[in-house]
Amino acid sequence: MFESLSQRLSSVFDKLTGRGALSEADVTEALREVRVALLEADVALPVVKDFVARVKARAIGQEVVKSVSPGQMVVKIVHDELIATLGTEGVELNLNAVPPAVILMVGLQGSGKTTTSGKLAVRLKKERKKVLLASLDVYRPAAQQQLEILAGQADVGSLPIIMGEMPVAITKRALEMGRKEGYDVVILDTAGRLHIDQELMAEVAAVRDVAKPVETLLVADAMIGQDAVTLAHEFNEKVGVTGIVLTRVDGDSRGGAALSMRAVTGRPIKFLGQGEKLDALEVFHPDRIAGRILGMGDVVSLVEKAMETVDQEEAEKLAKRIEKGKFDLNDMLSQFKQVEKMGDLKGILGMMPGIGKMAAQLKDAKIDNKAVARQKAIIQSMTPAERRNPDLIKASRKKRIAAGCGLSVQDVNKLLKQHQQMADVMKKVGKLGQKGLMRHGLG
Ligand code: GDP
């Protein structure tokens, strides 16, 4: 779902060719694409502007690590800055209060407030907290009953419903019940509106003054897009937000709202809603959202890994050959040696920009170490001529090779077939390479 993003950024890879330190021209060029990519990921415009300016300041003049291209370097800087902006991970709920600690849930209607209240109750119950749920939503029909049902499913306390009672009165009753019955936490689920309106804000503020919450969690749908800025700003200004919960992260959203809301409020994103079920709540991991926004988290971590492990000379040699569409058994052997260092074949290919699609074809290319050792042994039993020209390997040679490495002819056949498949892919890669993709990948 983030392909266009990935593609955009890999086109950034293609354009940058310089060496040494990142030049202003390189960075400006790359950031133009990054800017569009962030907007496509639904990060709000003012946030994008600010973010890009910061990355620019950081990136210009940075040394390009020898084993990556300038484009990759910029993306790495963008990625790191995204994580820094998104904030620290695993920020726990603050429950430091004379019990009961009050958590106030705020947000628009349909954002997932009620569901998230139930999810939090489940989570806190697991931590052996005694939780009371109370709905202040007196407007939406059956909203209070909905929370009551969730409380039942979560097996936590629920404030009895009194029809016609208003939010502030309900709040007072919830606090009283919380105190009297020894609850550790009271979660107040406020009413939402379809749009922000001042009446709603005033009501939530009145509830806040009575409830004195230790946490006020702004719940927002990850799909909110450009409106995230207004939403976050309004709620933070009028009600005061201590943390953010982003829901429907399981859907198609690109996660840009996380960046917007974090940037606008300065408040941590505490949880991500990952589904409708009560256990579908996850602690926030900035690296995952950053990867999602960029659509290429794996590549970034592979670049990092590559910086540490890949034998540069060998990789360069291989890249040059692949560029020409060549891939013989010697190449396969050197590929295997790198695979052992890197973990998996897809990894190496994934690092080469422009190969995202191709890497998808290689889903099954994960190779376990034992298998790699066997495959290496097979190739090592071949003569140099055979390695250069696998077509030489007919039945009698196969038998000799199999005997040489203590495996069966079938194993040799399997390896040859695998080589053929890889060589086919490499040929396609080689065609891409003519556009210069490979050079930047490993050059
Ligand atoms: P509220 O009006 O803010 O209280 O929103 P609700 O809690 O009633 O949620 C509205 C709808 O969104 C319900 O159908 C929920 O099941 C659904 N929902 C809430 N959170 C998530 C989530 O993280 N993922 C998905 N897929 N659906 C969610």
UniProtKB/TrEMBL annotation:
Gene Ontology molecular functions: 7S RNA binding; GTP binding; GTPase activity
Domain Signal recognition particle SRP54 helical bundle: from-to ranges: 1-86
Residues of the SRP54-type proteins GTP-binding domain: 100-295
Biological processes, Gene Ontology terms: SRP-dependent cotranslational protein targeting to membrane
Compartment(s): Cell inner membrane; Cytoplasm
Gene3D superfamilies in alphabetical order: P-loop containing nucleotide triphosphate hydrolases, Signal recognition particle SRP54, nucleotide-binding domain, Signal recognition particle, SRP54 subunit, M-domain
Keywords on record: Cytoplasm, GTP-binding, Hydrolase, Nucleotide-binding, Ribonucleoprotein, RNA-binding, Signal recognition particle
Cellular component GO terms held in the UniProt record: plasma membrane; signal recognition particle
Pfam families, per the entry: SRP54, SRP54_N, SRP_SPB
All residue ranges annotated as the AAA+ ATPase domain in the record: 99-276
SUPFAM superfamilies per UniProt: P-loop containing nucleoside triphosphate hydrolases, Signal peptide-binding domain
E.C. designation(s): 3.6.5.4
Residues that coordinate or bind GTP: 107-114, 189-193, 247-250
Membrane topology listed for this record: Peripheral membrane protein
Reaction catalysed by this enzyme: GTP + H2O = GDP + phosphate + H(+)
NCBIfam families membership: ffh
The protein's role, per its UniProt record: Involved in targeting and insertion of nascent membrane proteins into the cytoplasmic membrane. Binds to the hydrophobic signal sequence of the ribosome-nascent chain (RNC) as it emerges from the ribosomes. The SRP-RNC complex is then targeted to the cytoplasmic membrane where it interacts with the SRP receptor FtsY. Interaction with FtsY leads to the transfer of the RNC complex to the Sec translocase for insertion into the membrane, the hydrolysis of GTP by both Ffh and FtsY, and the dissociation of the SRP-FtsY complex into the individual components.
Domain free text: Composed of three domains: the N-terminal N domain, which is responsible for interactions with the ribosome, the central G domain, which binds GTP, and the C-terminal M domain, which binds the RNA and the signal sequence of the RNC.
Subunit (UniProt): Part of the signal recognition particle protein translocation system, which is composed of SRP and FtsY. SRP is a ribonucleoprotein composed of Ffh and a 4.5S RNA molecule.
HAMAP family: SRP54 (MF_00306)
Family in the record: Belongs to the GTP-binding SRP family. SRP54 subfamily.
Protein name, per record: Signal recognition particle protein
Organism of derivation: Magnetospirillum aberrantis SpK
Classification lineage: Bacteria, Pseudomonadati, Pseudomonadota, Alphaproteobacteria, Rhodospirillales
Gene: ffh
